[in-house]
Amino acid sequence: MKQSSLNLSVESLDKKSKYVYTDEQLIGRFQSGDERAYIELVKRYRDRILNFVFPYLGDIEQAEDVVQDTMLKLYEKKDYYKEIAKFSTWLFTIARNLANTELRKRNRRKITYLSHMTADESQYEIPSVENDIAKGAHDSFVYDRIQEAIKDLPDNYKTVIILRDIQELSYDDISLIIGVPLGTVKSRINRARIQLQAELQDIK
């Protein structure tokens, strides 16, 4: 009987845990030593974190490095999580901090993707690696234009628009992640949408 219960538990985690366990329950299980719960959390959030940091960084390899570092931090710092906040908010905050660190490193190295572009080209051209990622998943022209428009946003607008319109987080969660008042979050999102609409008005 005990063996059957164990098999059922393993199956639940491996195949159906997203319907059985909340994120908060999974991190609790992981904190108690169940590493299968960690694997499930990685499965749930790996792509979401990548989709968050990729438009923010504009480089797929750097974005993947940030995802890996985020999951490593999750593993190493699991006991830092307290269930006074949503797990997703806590994890996105880690990812955002790591992405900001990567951006600061980039600035110190003085790397620019626009150094060989003309003024006209710089508004629409993006690194070729992004074109490669887009193929097969999205219409390349629309995808590239949207990604470029997001990348051109000021950082404070870029972060909130990705969290709200791509990751579909609540205003309250975004406020907690970036550490600004709720009204500021809503204002930045509105301004970011206005700027994106202006940049993408020819796309219907």
Fill in the keyword field for this structure.
Rna Polymerase Sigma Factor, Chain: A; disordered N terminus; single chain; 204 residues; mainly alpha
Short description:
By secondary structure, this protein is mainly alpha-helical. It contains 10 helices and no strands.
CATH class call of the domain at 18-111? Mainly Alpha
CATH homologous superfamily grouping of the domain at 18-111: RNA polymerase sigma factor, region 2, helix turn helix motif
Question: Order of helices and strands, N to C?
Answer: HHHHHHHHHH
Described by strand count, sense and barrel closure, the largest sheet is: none
Based on DSSP secondary structure assignment, what is the total number of beta strands? Answer: 0
- Note the total helix count: 10
Distance from N terminus to C terminus (CA atoms, Å) equals 60 Å
**Sheet/helix structural class:** mainly alpha
Query: Which radius of gyration do the C-alpha atoms yield?
Result: 19 Å
> What is the CATH topology descriptor of the domain at 18-111?
Rna Polymerase Sigma Factor, Chain: A
Low-pLDDT windows of residues: 1-12, 14-19, 110-138
Mean pLDDT: 78
Q: Estimate the strand proportion.
A: under 5%
Mass-distribution shape: globular
Helical content class: over 70%
CATH architecture of the domain at 18-111: Orthogonal Bundle
